[in-house]
Amino acid sequence: MNFESHLENIKKTDPEMYDWILKEIDRQKYTLELIPSECITSPSVLEALGSVFTNKYSEGYPGKRYYGGNQFVDEIEKLTQERAKKIFEVEHVNVQPYSGSPANFAVYTAVCQPGDIIMGQALTDGGHLTHGSPASATSKYFKSVQYHVTEDGEVDMEEVERLAKENKPKLIWVGTSAYSKILDYKKFAEIADSVGAYLAADIAHIAGMVAGGSHPSPVNNVHIMTTTTHKTLRGPRGGMIMVTKKGLEKDEDLAKKIDSAIFPQLQGGPHNHQIAAIGVALAEAMKPDFRDYAKQIVKNAKALAQELISLGMKVIGGGTDTHLMLVDCGKGRGVFFQDALDVAGITLNKNTIPKDPSSPFYPSGVRLGTPIMTTRGMKEEEMKIVAGWLKRVFDQIAEFDLPEGKKERIAYLRDFQKKIEGNEELKKIREEVKELCQKFGIY
Ligand SMILES: Cc1ncc(COP(=O)(O)O)c(C=O)c1O
Predict the structure, then answer these.
(1) How far apart, in whole angstroms, are the C-alpha atoms of residue 127 and residue 174?
(2) Which candidate in 59, 74, 156, 161 is catalytic?
(3) Is 66 designated active site?
(4) Is 355 a catalytic residue?
(5) Atom of ligand 1 lying closest to residue 37 CA
(6) What pLDDT score was predicted for residue 152?
(7) What is the set of domains in the chain, with CATH numbers?
(8) Catalytic residue (one of 30, 47, 56, 57)
(9) Were 192 and a residue from 108, 199, 267, 432 both cysteine, which residue would form a disulfide, CB within 3.0 to 4.6 Å?
């Protein structure tokens, strides 16, 4: 893809912004992105996102709009809905959520009243903020009960069952942001059904793999599914809410409740350019090569985890069944690994590990995954090279330990940053990373 010709207008009208866009293009091209919630969309998705549909207001739904001139907007929304229904085998889809968090808040709005009890996986244990984390408004408006993972990183299903029986929640979330195992959707369904709760699967992270058949779908076990569209699904930033057959059997008005929660209760005009781009991504997800990509994400993640283990690194749970893994770096040391990797041209994020002995701001682990490397065409062979770099960078931080005191920490980290920026081994790895990235372009 020729970005220069794609940006010829902005180059003339806003050179300052143009420069930042070029810098970001270079960053994405020449560094290795291991953040598992990110991906690289196709040029077609970018084109739809940059289309004239951004100019149009269309509050309402196809055939029922509050503005005129929506004959084509109606068509793109219906087309996107139909594609999503086919891929995820659901009865109803709302493609208007601006992103994953608003989609999840719409689920609460549709099926709960303020003050109702809800259950979700703790953020520190791999869940998402919007599943009732104390840091999220969802715990302010609803009474949140959080479940956890065991030492080896698997959801503690006995705790889920006990908490559900004790608290009788209205809504239970199943779905994760930092979890490398396959969730037991059937068991979750038994528990939710036994207490009469709605069960909502948040498949944001795994949507691409579900679409491509490399991860089981929760569709037959849950009433509602939400997703972002920009992670493994490889679309633009956005969200969707899906109502399953089981959902309509529990509540025949569920689809209407979801639609009304999005509009008029929470959102105004849909982002039509974004909906068009989601539609394009969904068409891509129906193609055979998307299935290859979805399978390769998992193969790559398994290969990367195995190689890291063989190099002596601690992968939580001893491997992965998905696109991501957590690595234990030692108490409070995730930040050192993340920052040193940044210098080496490798991007990932610090993350808590199960029963983390440190704090969420200075967690003991990192989270990494393979969707972008897989999109770039890398396979198991390249995963070995990447694991080698990770280990070499890890060795460079061996001498650093986080002080206990808050003030000391800040000074220590400043000093650490200076040291790693001048580290010759990290600079060497950065060059090697760049070389590999040139071989596996993003467009
Ligand atoms: C499981 C899960 N749900 C929801 C979201 C929220 O999506 P967004 O950041 O688009 O609001 C995320 C984002 O990381 C996520 O991982």
Answers:
(1) 8
(2) 59
(3) no
(4) no
(5) 14
(6) 82
(7) 52-285 (3.40.640.10), 296-439 (3.90.1150.10)
(8) 57
(9) 199
237 annotated active-site:
yes
Q: What is the pLDDT of residue 203?
A: 98
Query: One of 33, 77, 125, 202 is an active-site residue; which one?
Result: 202
Instruction: Give the position, in ligand 1's atom list, of the atom nearest the Cα of 237.
Output: 10
Q: How far apart are CA 308 and CA 318, in angstroms?
A: 10
Catalytic residue at 259? Answer: no
Could you tell me how far CA 241 lies from the centroid of its own chain? 15
Residues in contact with ligand 1 (CB, 6 Å cut-off): 37, 99-101, 104, 128, 130, 175-177, 202, 204-205, 228
In the prediction, which pLDDT does 211 show?
98
Which ligand 1 atom minimizes the distance to the CA of 177? 16
- Predicted TM-score (pTM) of the model is 0.97
Nearest CA to ligand 1 atom 5: 100
Tell me how far the alpha carbon of residue 203 lies from the centroid of ligand 1, in angstroms: 9
Low-confidence ranges of the chain (pLDDT < 50): none
Q: Is 59 a catalytic residue?
A: yes
At 353 the pLDDT is 95
d(CA 110, CA 384): 46
CA 176 to ligand 1: nearest atom: 1
| Dist. CA 334 → ligand 1 center (Å) | 21
Q: What is the pLDDT of residues 166-204, one digit of tens each?
A: 999 999 999 999 999 999 999 999 999 999 999 999 999
Catalytic residue among 29, 237, 314, 419: 237
